[in-house]
Amino acid sequence: MKTGNDLGRDSVPSLVLKLAIPTMVAQFVNVLYSIIDRMYIGHIPEYGDLALAGAGICGPIVTLLSSFGTLVGLGGSIQMSIRMGERNMKKARQILSNSLLLLTLFSAVLTVLFLMIKGQLLRWFGASDQTFAYANTYLTIYTIGTFFALMAVGLNYFINCQGFPVIGMTTVLIGTVCNIILDPVFIFGLNMGIAGAAVATVISQFLSCSFALAFLAFSKKVPIGISFGQYSGKVMEKILAIGFSPFLILASDNVLLIATNTVLQKYGGSQGDFLITTATIVQSYMLLITSPMLGISGGTQALISFNYGAANTKRVRDAEKYSLLLCFAFTTVMFIVTRFLPVHFIRLFTSNAEISRLSVWAIGVFTFAIIPLSLQYVLVDGLTAMERTKTALSLSLFRKSFYVVLVFILPLIRKEATTVFYAQPIADLTASTVSTIVFLLVFRKHMERREAVFRESSKGTAI
């Protein structure tokens, strides 16, 4: 089997760098979609701050839509990597074919559904009378491009898992560069305002989707390309079962944002929209850290799954170790940079002095526990790659549930809406500690069971 990288034989530290860094860069530039939109939106004359709040309200809904691409893409790619580790290429090919069908079906259903319920969704997510029109305009246009968004996200997993992280990074870069160019053209040049930001994003996702489809369909380098047929309800069920954990992890982020926006509106009084604008800026900055972290942990999932399929415990352990070291290095750098960078970052979004002052403080609070958060990301995604999805889901939901509880409790203690921002570091530190303990308890036994299953399977094949 020829791939860009040999996941079963190449040096593990080298593979972690080759897989994680392009995926990390891809995640970083991917988040620029929303940040660039928000940056330009915040500077629209006369109503920029309100439009920015509207875009912030759309953020979790957009995340919810794209998480369906992760549901299929990550679930299918993990299964495909394991089958490739077992050298079962026929089954791997069938998994990609069924995943493509699932992505198409989800795109069609979600487009219709979200267009029908978008008004109610926006109210749930904290839209006020002043921000609703801006949020509704953005979400309507974005939803129309759901097919391109889901395909771009979902298919990229199948490119990365076959050892082509640079191609996966290129898929994302194409869309991001296009978005950077088109945003000012549509928002200011054509005077389309927030609608222009949404149009630019949809066009960018169309280009990313087209590139990913073309690579998987026509490239002679890729071992498993796009094919049709061999559809199976059992295969689709397995894809969704594996992908459900990371899907729910991403989708549940919306609960955190809903809770935060709701509490800020309730306890912020007349300053509610002002506080949501601040939270939107803070969350945008946090994405500059968590998205590359997700790239590191997610980029090494293919390496972990492949060697898990081959029952190579040492390579799985080494992949986890070096991924964690890389994530620690990144978060340490970002922790230091955050002490100096925020004020310059915030200026990209707003010129309002009061919003800027509060955002600098909130970013400092939000990022206090980002170094230990590396443990949460790497270990939870590692468990997912090893088909330990229930454990991974439980650990992630613990962190987010604890966060939501803190969001509602902290303002009651201090009687100030801004205490909501302390929920992030407290939840991060607590959850990272719990995840580390659980991983150390389950990893060895889980891999021993996998080795036993692999030995039995090898005996059966030999007979």
Features of this protein?
single chain; mainly alpha
Query: What characterizes the major β-sheet?
Result: none
Rg over alpha carbons = 22 Å
* Shape by Cα distribution: globular
Q: Helix and strand succession?
A: HHHHHHHHHHHHHHHHH
Extract low-pLDDT stretches.
none
What is the strand content? Answer: under 5%
Number of helices: 17
- Termini separation comes to 24 Å
Q: How many domains would you count in the coordinates?
A: 1
The structural class is: mainly alpha
Report mean pLDDT, rounded to a whole number: 84
Specify the oligomeric state.
single chain
β-strand number: 0
Main location: membrane
Keywords: Antibiotic resistance, Cell membrane, Membrane, Transmembrane, Transmembrane helix, Transport
Protein name: Multidrug export protein MepA
Family: Belongs to the multi antimicrobial extrusion (MATE) (TC 2.A.66.1) family. MepA subfamily.
Give a brief rundown of this model.
The chain has helices at residues 12-42, 48-85, 89-124, 132-144, 146-160, 165-189, 194-218, 233-251, 253-268, 272-299, 301-309, 313-338, 342-346, 353-366, 373-385, 389-414, 423-462.
